[in-house]
Amino acid sequence: MSKIVTEIELRAPLDNVEEGTLEFEGKRYLDGRASDPRELGWMCGAPPPEDRRVTFESDTSFDFPQKRWSLSHMRELVATVNVWRGQGTPSQFEHSDKSADIDALAFADGDGRIRRFDGALLDTYADGIVVLHRGRTVYERYFGALEPQLPHACYSVTKSYAGTLTAAFVQEGVLDDSKMIPHYLPELKGTAWEDATLRQVMDMQTGLAHTEEYTDERSDVWAYRIASGRRPRPAGYLGAQTLCDYLRTVRKQGTHGEVFAYKTVNTEVMAWVMACVTGRSFAQLLHERLWAPLGCEEDGYVIVDPAGMPSAGGGLNATLRDLARFGELIRREGEWNGKQLIPASVVHDVQRGGDPAKFPYKGLPGYSYRSMWWVSHNELGAIEARGQHAQRLYVAPKAEMVIARFASHPLASAGHSDTISVPQMLALGRMLRE
Amino acid sequence: MSKIVTEIELRAPLDNVEEGTLEFEGKRYLDGRASDPRELGWMCGAPPPEDRRVTFESDTSFDFPQKRWSLSHMRELVATVNVWRGQGTPSQFEHSDKSADIDALAFADGDGRIRRFDGALLDTYADGIVVLHRGRTVYERYFGALEPQLPHACYSVTKSYAGTLTAAFVQEGVLDDSKMIPHYLPELKGTAWEDATLRQVMDMQTGLAHTEEYTDERSDVWAYRIASGRRPRPAGYLGAQTLCDYLRTVRKQGTHGEVFAYKTVNTEVMAWVMACVTGRSFAQLLHERLWAPLGCEEDGYVIVDPAGMPSAGGGLNATLRDLARFGELIRREGEWNGKQLIPASVVHDVQRGGDPAKFPYKGLPGYSYRSMWWVSHNELGAIEARGQHAQRLYVAPKAEMVIARFASHPLASAGHSDTISVPQMLALGRMLRE
User: Fold this and answer.
1) A410 contacts A125 by C-beta, under 8 angstroms
2) pLDDT per residue over A332-379, tens digit each?
3) With contact defined as beta carbons under 8 Å apart, do B332 and B164 qualify?
4) Nearest-CA distance B281 → chain A (Å)
5) Cα–Cα distance for residue pair A179/B348, rounded to 1 Å
6) Which of A124, A128, A108, A127 is nearest to A116 (CA)?
7) CB distance from B57 to chain A under 8 Å?
8) Whether A308 contacts chain B with CB within 8 A
9) For chain B, which domains are there?
10) For tag attachment on chain B, is the N or C end more exposed, with fewer CB atoms within 10 Å?
């Protein structure tokens, strides 16, 4: 297949096309197979032809289907800082291949449609998936532009890394989650966080005059992204020059501690506290506490803002296997080859979850949120790290299972993939548990 | 020492200061010790204070002394592509420490002043140095912001990597260096390279209407850098958008094949030919032919332009030890652990050098230039890869010695460091040869 569609066709939703497309919210997009970036020729050639280039400055890097290339090549678009794996030998997972059984696994999606596991991956625009069961690799697949050694954008899966580290420092007495944010960051006096505790920030229970709508470019989350170096600056841009400058502009609205409200800026504040108190950047902490002791296979990296601050809200990029290693660490309650890298109490606290009464989020019924993790409270005891365009780390202790999954779904919001993925992951856990 | 000088003092040459400074071309600069970026606090803090930030967009990233931080942190400023080391175990050099003897080695610099080896490193703003003798590490030092695992800007040392690969492809029959450039790149018909052979390009014997003066921002080399993503674009920039677009604008002046004339754009044309013919990017080729088979310790990276093209003229960043591995490969005439990674004839051809009559460059008397290497024709049979701000790879077969040296000298041009370094490297070779 070497179908080439024109730029105009690619930028606009595709009408009058049925085969090789999927419809979301009244618009048609190339499907998981037809949007394969290699087949479409994105960034192929020396140099790539103009209508096949993904350039950061054009602000189309993250349009669909360009993002099917971009999410596996973020560092080729923006400035990044390395997360060093160290000099040790990579840890290895034994293999116990169950591909045939897993591919054929049938399950009913949220709309009642019976799907196969393999087809469901394509329909959720998976770029790759690794499944561990009892610490062994039972399933591993790559699609699109992803390769085993290539880091992929984690987006908000980053938050669960940051939340885990912060919770560890709280447990170890380095941080006190009952303190108000200005105790650590006097710079944030007079902002929304003036009277928010670190714990409220960790649990996204702050009242902020800050909107986070990925489909509306007027939403505050877009201004945050521009300030933090993750979107190009419009000509004559006079807004906040750095991530920390931006955080200083956020004002309070409502009450802290009352209700879950997902705002990425909370994660940046949390990570800023951690950096100030430890004297270590987020990238250094990831290296010291996770990448090196876990024996990660490849270096990761984090997008930095113009002042060199790594974005803990969504800037991490890691390989699929290294994401799976983190998941396996959490499944093992923070213990890795005889060493306790993260206190077990941190994992237990996340698994207990937050107060469901403070979690009004309808998209994930029965869930709660704790220390930047999504807690399913389901029969598998699963907790999830979740990032836009369908990034997932699914840790299911009662099935002894970890699923690491990267994707480049056309839509930022999770609804369309969750309808398929939530029952898909549950079905796989049930199968492996038996 | 925790001397902090103000932004204004740093930007301007320092007058009325003697201690801790050096004078070049009538201006005073902080010396190698006083310009230590950690001591000065560059990019320290979360976020770093405004007067200690190195930001790409401000176009001060490569001012002195900021560059003492920047050259060890290029990827935190610009977009880059990874040069993967692969999954193998790193190759190791045995150690045979001769630090004390080498530190104390006395030699006369070009002005007749007697210096010690260790002091000379400080006075040439070394960021690090590794010396191999008979394949063993005899000396290894890090200064400034450099660490063993951090890649440092190679600048034009990159050219010798690219020249070696191109010469290998010529030797292997993949490329024909007698062909005119448009044979491979029809895009360059009508440009300076229309009637230049690949060999003339490889040896920098082209007549180009293109100036390369690092001290004059009106020089063409600055426009090339802006187009290739290595300098920020001024507001309203309407010039070439990509490296290849830029190359298409270069016109002929003079005659090809007559005389050596150092123009970085030749290297970009050479690497573009290699990428087109092999179907592999420069970064992929570095991985396949050098980084993986050499057992490099860390991934390297290359700065990319807005179309994703790696800059072969000066965009490579590598660790000091991995640079030394490349030098040792050349010293071993392309053989590594029983495998011929680069044909020995490529190394022999470089060692024979170019025609000294076509090398009018007064800065390095007796030298010639071949396949993007500088050929000393000295008693050690040394060839050099040379990059601005005093980057060096010095391969001296008759002393069985390799010197890899990174630096962040205030001046781009090599004169002030060569006055010290050329006799310094020769003296070390003589000492080790005995």
Assistant:
1) yes
2) 999 999 999 999 999 999 999 998 889 988 889 899 999 999 999 999
3) no
4) 7
5) 68
6) A108
7) yes
8) yes
9) 7-70 (no CATH), 152-433 (3.40.710.10)
10) C
